[in-house]
Design a protein that fits this description.
The complex is a heterotrimer of chains A (312), B (537) and C (331). Chain A is mostly helical and 312 residues long. Chain A contains twelve helices and no strands. Classes of the chains: A mainly alpha (312), B alpha+beta (537), C alpha/beta (331).
């Protein structure tokens, strides 16, 4: 099979994944105790009001009927209205998704920009003081809860030093980047720690590979050996890891968006779950599943590009 | 049957002074020292976004507390929350033994888009609010049999029976006046569907209108150029051109923004940080009297989950009340900002009676009562708490320790909101934390919910007092204020001493502003008023 | 005789391991002249590969190298890094045993050749590409131009080895160090590769050090041979002299254990026992425990390398007992 066939098959793989996730989410959301109607209408609502709304929302039908109508609406591209906000789900998600994407993108960039050089330094000075220092610092990043780190950064850099605005999102593209820097940094910290550790181990492994010795035997410059031979091979394993980490990045985005008052989908997800806003929960989970799948796909493609043995 | 042209209830209810708020027990400053600044924008951060700005269908405080800036009602509550003053109506009188209410509406009122308000709008809005199919507040105006309007400015309400609560109901948000012509054009098969669309881009006669709204993120209010109200000096209201309301759910972040000057004011300051803000020279902490009461409620049914329920015995309930030191709880949870409850309703709710805490702290008496009830050896109770809620945490852990000292094992169960509400509505709890804020400046709402068993089984606890039920029914048609007050005094007596609750405290609304942001008013019902707010340079 | 190209004197390599110091190579001496083919032969663990890697200082940080490695009179072990780098791949090239691991799997072959040219020549892009094509042709790879863009996994085993040789030859080295270049290959391919190497030695006037465990290969291709055992040199000399008349008990035993060196129908005599553990310094001769000619002195004193004839030296106390040509000895 050649590479384009491999790529195509890889793309097709995502479809059954989405279907499964859609069904799973649908069922799980409805298994949660408590329902949206009484949650929305509040403790004081009359039984009559609750019954009326339940019927209106079609929530008194059987699960089977609800699932059918859900699948039908998805097929038609209409994901319904948010039960809490009374606006189309797609609009809600459409407004907020770019924010989270921007935040995650920035976090990934920062994490990679920090982790890759640090991994190199750590690997090349293995077990000496620079390595130990780097590993300790990153360990702190790995162990600190996102909430805490975010709050500390916010308080120090926005609250005291006023170098950054206190959360929010801003209005222009430039302002977006400015406002999102601190939350992106918060997210990047634990992400970078994971990438750094993995890349460092990868580099150490590659450094002992035969082809590195052979490259040296060829009399190549140290830098050439490092970048062309060591880095590219070491990155292969790490790229997969980065793709997998994107999933947990989106999870960290939930907390970060709350602390920094960033209007993204992370917060929307949590709010919808607490409010049992089924249409939003379903649609959002599907969207996030798409995103994670895409991230994995991209990392697979990058891996394919880096490693010609893949997709043979 | 009384026949008088003088509006009796108006005189009685118009107790409080209109205009500026007075110094209250919570130590409020009197506002409006210097002349207000006209124009500009105030930024007020909220902890959650509104969801549906439809006066009839909304349920949430996040909607209700903002809507008074967008809409007007025929009557308005006075700032101390106990009385009524002119709103869209300038005069009103009862006749026919209290079964007819005639109101005169002021002229020249326009909606924010410039359309003149007509009597047709008033009739339509009232009927929409009265429709039993619409929302949860129609019971407030259930006594209205018909609404007749005559141009240019008269409204006549014919009631099914005399209703002492009706005037207060005409000051309640759900009777806000909406534009009929605009509403009719909205697509939708019923008021709920139309209301959904209307609620996203509402239109009223209030001081502001919603100019833009990014759901979950920020709402912008712009000044209504046609607003009818002027201040005492004759200056057109509102002072501000714009109010921006960003949504920032995290307490710490909200306060950081306030301290950094990125917002002018914010709400729900955590009790633990009030002192800190009071010490900040750039900020001004404001504690507004509120109708908010916090309490624990007990399931009074004979059995719970198949086993005998000790809380069904009134002596047990009283014992638990004596066993808990409310002052200590107030100190711990509210950092001294709360006040012990002297009745199940707040002290600023009209017809409140009582002084001093309902139950003094007396662990010896608690033990004695438990022994009398047959629980000398102790007992076990579970309590549903809202997970993640700091106040619940603080209150319940303190109560847990206190109850342990009289031999009661108190287990705290954390639940998320939806599950807790579901259990509550089914009466499927042994005890739970709860709080209440009035929506109307009349005690009938809270009393029907707490005391009158046909409503919701008294807070879904299964408690019942035949005498209290009878008193309530009578009070709903009693137009003699003295008689009504006596009925309420008796109901409170019964409920407070034998009822299904452990009253904890009442607390003010804690909001904070930058020193140069003034004129904000929050009435005990919770409504935020920005019409007289302004920002000095 | 001209001054030797490479002269190794008293080479020692000690590895630091968690279990203690391991003496992989101990007191090794040999020389290689221009255009000469030297075979270094020994069992697995005899230290022959380590010796080869020690020469261009390719061992890792856990190895301590002592002694001298004189390249045209200069000690490579003492050279500053930049000069060493220029020698490596330029004048002294190396070919590894397993081409699948020695070639970088993610780079095309063409690039792996090009690197050497960039590092050691001043040819421009076009010239380098032409040279790469020429090199692949030189090692017998057809459709050279198309092959340049391919990756190692797209070549067969034999082709990969040829490619590796092409890479090694790129800068026209004077000495090629080949670490068991045919061990990982099919027997038929082995022969082809060996023939290729010999042809290159002839055509390019290159010297070749061939490390192998296969005496037959040595006999076929080498001018001179050095026999190693347990990190030590046993015997060195021309192939004819050493295989024709071994003067070390180990060499003798080796030859007897191989087919084709005795008369037909004569029993092969395997060498009993195991090579010694090299994590403990051995007193005396390392081979003594397995030696049929062992004398008491072999257990206590280490034999020194002594000349037996011109260019033929051995380190064995029993040298005088040996030396008889085996019937049908390869020569």
């Amino acid at each position: 099979m050649n590479r384009s066939t491999w790529l195509l098959l890889r793309l097709l793989q995502v479809i059954p994944t989405f279907l499964l996730i859609g069904v799973a989410v649908f069922v799980l959301a409805r298994l949660l105790p408590g329902d949206i109607v009484s949650s929305m209408l509040g403790e004081r609502a009359s039984d009559a009001a609750i019954n009326r709304m339940t019927h209106q929302l079609g929530l008194d039908r059987s699960i089977g009927a609800q699932m059918l109508s859900f699948l039908e609406s998805v097929a038609r591209g209409r994901l319904g209205d948010s039960l809490a906000f009374h606006v189309p789900v797609l609009k809600l998600i459409g407004d907020r998704l770019p924010v989270t994407l921007l935040l995650s993108g920035m976090a990934t960039l920062i994490a990679v920009a920090v982790a890759v050089p640090m991994a190199f330094v750590a690997a090349l000075t293995a077990n000496r003081w620079p390595d130990l220092l780097i590993r300790s610092v990153f360990q702190v990043g790995l162990s600190s809860p996102v909430f805490y780190v975010g709050l500390v950064l916010l308080t120090v850099f926005a609250g005291w030093l006023r170098w950054f605005p206190v959360g929010g999102y801003g209005d222009t593209a430039g302002e977006h980047l400015y406002h999102l820097f601190l939350p992106a940094l918060t997210l990047a910290l634990s992400f970078a720690a994971v990438v750094m550790r993995s890349l460092r181990a990868s580099i150490l492994q590659v450094l002992t590979a035969e082809y590195v010795d052979f490259a040296r035997a060829k009399g190549l410059r140290g830098r050439v050996v490092l970048f062309r031979h060591v880095l590219r091979n070491a990155l292969i394993a790490t790229v997969t890891l980065v793709g997998l980490q994107i999933g947990s990045l989106l999870g960290g985005a939930v907390i970060t968006e709350s602390v920094f008052a960033v209007p993204g989908v992370g917060r929307l997800m949590v709010d919808s779950i607490f409010a049992r806003d089924y249409p939003v929960i379903q649609a959002l989970t599907l969207v996030l599943a798409v995103l994670v799948s895409l991230a994995l796909l991209v990392s697979d493609v990058v891996q394919m590009w880096l490693d010609p043995r893949v997709g043979r | 049957m009384m026949d008088t042209k003088v509006p009796v209830s108006r005189r009685a209810l118009l107790g409080g002074v209109a205009a500026a708020a007075t110094v209250s027990a919570f130590g409020l400053p009197t506002p409006a020292e210097a002349a207000p600044v006209l124009g500009g924008k105030m930024i007020y951060a909220r902890y959650a976004d509104s969801q549906r700005l439809d006066p009839v269908f909304t349920e949430l405080n996040v909607d209700i507390w903002v809507m008074n800036n967008l809409f007007d009602t025929l009557l308005l509550p006075t700032p101390d929350g106990k009385g009524l003053k002119e709103g869209l109506a300038t005069k009103w009188e009862l006749s026919d033994g209290g079964k007819t209410v005639t109101l005169t509406v002021r002229e020249g009122v326009k909606f924010a888009d410039g359309t003149p308000m007509t009597m047709a709008d008033v009739k339509f809005s009232l009927e929409r609010a009265m429709n039993p199919k619409n929302g949860s507040w129609n019971s407030m105006v259930a006594s209205v049999a018909s609404v007749e309007v005559t141009e240019p400015a008269t409204v006549v309400l014919k009631l099914k029976h005399p209703d002492p609560t009706l005037l207060a109901a005409l000051a309640m948000f759900n009777t806000s006046v909406l534009p009929k012509a605009m509403y009719d054009k909205i697509p939708g098969k019923d008021d709920d569907e139309k209301g959904k669309i209307f609620g996203q881009k509402p239109m009223g006669t209030g001081a502001f209108y919603v100019s833009d709204w990014k759901i979950g993120e920020v709402m912008w209010l712009k000044k209504n150029p046609y607003y009818w109200k002027k201040d005492a000096a004759g200056v057109q209201l509102p002072y501000l051109d714009e109010v921006e309301m960003p949504v920032i759910p995290d307490d710490a972040t909200r306060l950081l923004k306030l301290k950094a000057g990125e917002v002018h004011g914010t709400e729900f300051i955590p009790y633990a940080r009030v002192k800190e803000l009071q010490g900040d020279a750039n900020l001004r902490m404001e504690l507004w009297p509120s109708t908010k009461v916090t309490y624990i409620q007990f399931n009074c049914r004979p059995e719970y989950k198949g086993k005998p329920n000790p809380l069904s015995n009134v002596k047990v309930r009283q014992a638990l009340n004596y066993a808990v030191n409310k002052d200590a709880i107030i100190a711990i949870t509210t950092h001294g900002l709360g006040k012990p409850l002297s009745s199940f309703m707040s002290s600023v709710t009209p017809l409140h009676t009582g002084s001093g805490p309902v139950y003094p702290y007396d662990p010896a008496k608690a033990k004695a009562l438990l022994a009398e009830a047959g629980f000398a050896k102790g007992l076990e109770i579970t309590c549903h708490a809202l997970s993640g809620n700091q106040d619940d945490q603080n209150n319940l852990t303190t109560i847990q320790q206190m109850l342990a000292q009289v031999g009661v094992k108190f287990t705290i169960e954390q639940m998320d909101n939806a599950s807790r509400v579901a259990a509550y509505r089914k009466g499927d709890f042994q005890s739970r934390t709860a709080y209440w804020t009035d929506d109307i400046a009349d005690p009938s709402e809270i009393t029907s919910y707490f005391v009158y068993s046909p409503t919701v089984d008294c807070l879904h606890t299964g408690w019942k007092s035949e005498e209290a039920d009878k008193l309530f029914v009578a009070s709903q048609e009693e137009v003699d204020p003295a008689k009504r007050a006596a009925e309420y005094a008796k109901m409170q007596d019964i409920f407070n001493h034998t009822g299904p609750t452990m009253p904890l405290y009442e607390t003010p609304y804690p909001v904070a502003f930058r020193k140069n942001a003034k004129g904000f008013v929050q009435i005990p019902l919770g409504n935020n008023y920005f019409e007289a707010a302004y920002v000095e340079k | 005789m001209n001054a030797p190209l490479l002269e190794v004197r008293d080479l020692g390599v000690v590895f630091a391991t968690p279990r203690g110091a391991v003496h992989a190579v101990d007191g090794l001496d040999f020389t290689v002249g221009a255009g000469e083919v030297l075979g270094i032969v020994g069992e697995s663990g005899s230290g022959k590969s380590v010796t080869l890697r020690a020469i261009p200082r390719l061992l890792h940080a856990n190895a301590t190298v002592s002694g001298q490695v004189l390249w045209r009179g200069e000690d490579m072990l003492a050279l500053p890094a930049e000069r060493l780098r220029r020698l490596r791949g330029g004048q002294v090239a190396m070919v590894f045993q397993e081409p699948m691991s020695a070639l970088n799997p993610v780079l095309p072959i063409g690039q792996q050749i090009d690197e050497v040219l960039v590092a050691h020549t001043s040819l421009d892009g076009r010239a380098r590409r032409a040279r790469a094509v020429e090199l692949l042709g030189l090692v017998g790879i057809a459709s050279a131009a198309a092959r340049l863009a391919q990756y190692p996994h797209e070549f067969s085993g034999g082709m990969r080895q040829r490619a590796m040789i092409a890479i090694a030859l790129a800068a026209e080295p004077a000495l090629l160090l080949a670490d068991e270049p045919t061990t990982a290959l099919d027997v038929t391919i082995q022969d082809q590769i060996l023939q290729l190497l010999l042809r290159l030695v002839d055509e390019l006037g290159m010297a070749l050090v061939l490390v192998t465990h296969d005496l037959g290969v040595v006999a076929e291709t080498c001018d001179r041979v050095a026999v190693m055992y347990a990190g030590r040199l046993c015997e060195t000399g021309t192939v004819g002299a050493v295989f024709g008349g071994p003067r070390h008990a180990y060499t003798d035993a080796l030859l007897r254990s191989m087919p084709g060196t005795g008369t037909a129908r004569e029993r092969l005599v395997p060498i009993p026992g195991q090579p010694p553990r090299i994590d403990r310094p051995v007193a005396g001769c390392a081979f003594a425990p397995r030696c049929t000619h062992a004398r008491p002195v072999c257990g206590t004193e280490r034999p020194r390398l002594t000349d037996w004839a011109e260019g033929h030296a051995s380190a064995c106390f029993a040298a005088d007992e040996l030396g008889a040509p085996l019937v049908g000895a390869v020569a």
